[in-house]
Amino acid sequence: MAVAHARAYHQIAEEPRVFTDPFAIPILGESVMTETYVDHGLDPELVRHRRLFIAARSRFADDTVAAAIVRGTDQVVILGAGLDTTAYRHSNTNVQFYEVDHPTTQEWKRRRLSQAGIAIPDALTFVPADFENTTLAAGLAGAGLDSNRSAVYVWLGVAVYLTRASVDGTLRYIASHGKSELVFDYFYPIAATPHDPTAAQLQARANRVAEAGEPWLTFFTSDEVRDSLVSVGYSRVEDRSATELLTFYGVPTDAPASNAGPHLVHCGTA
Ligand SMILES: C[S@@+](CC[C@H](N)C(=O)[O-])C[C@H]1O[C@@H](n2cnc3c(N)ncnc32)[C@H](O)[C@@H]1O
Questions:
Q1: Rounded distance from Cα 258 to ligand 1 centre (Å)
Q2: Per the UniProt record, which residue ranges are transmembrane (predicted)?
């Protein structure tokens, strides 16, 4: 809900629009102007920076999906989909979309779609699965994903909530899909950037999500993430910090160049 809120607020906020999503506000089902618990009391500039990163990572994923479709890819897998609306925005293509999520979240999303009057595209298959057990590969194969054809995987805002074993297992599974590319984000260890001016606020946000029952569990440095990806078979790895991603999209930001916080990775096996 917190990331969906950020995408929705981004549609109306007084900032450069990086990502346009006509479904972002309707799917939210509540006022965009309500502050979410993860933002309460934090520095407004950092709240804005986080919101812009969430918008920019979706834009990057969208651009990657669009480029892959032009090259002939017709399978897109959204892992840990939450209230992501990619499939609803590309429903006029011949692309098959798979939304993987925890069964409880997926049921909640279906109710939200129904309440918002947003139709589920014919080309979308819901795949309930838990990354913490082995249901992912079986679930996608059973849903019809063809691992002999190329696919794009999008995995946003999820890895930090999983155990390291589940992150590694999921990366290994995706890499085993021939001709695949992946867009995902990870969090840099807060302890590795103790002098970063945002460290205290990042820790405050970490404490807040932990109190809400969703603790951040897995962090990587850039070297660690690259080593993990290369070891399971990815051959090209692009890694951008939040500030680098915003600069990539021409968004003015006062944030200092830093590894702290979330990073976005684009990698491929072919
Ligand atoms: C912060 S939300 C991000 C949602 C979406 N990717 C987005 O960017 O809006 C985290 C998502 O990860 C999913 N998730 C967390 N742990 C999971 C698990 N063990 N198995 C499956 N999904 C999980 C949640 O259900 C939720 O949809």
A1: 26
A2: none
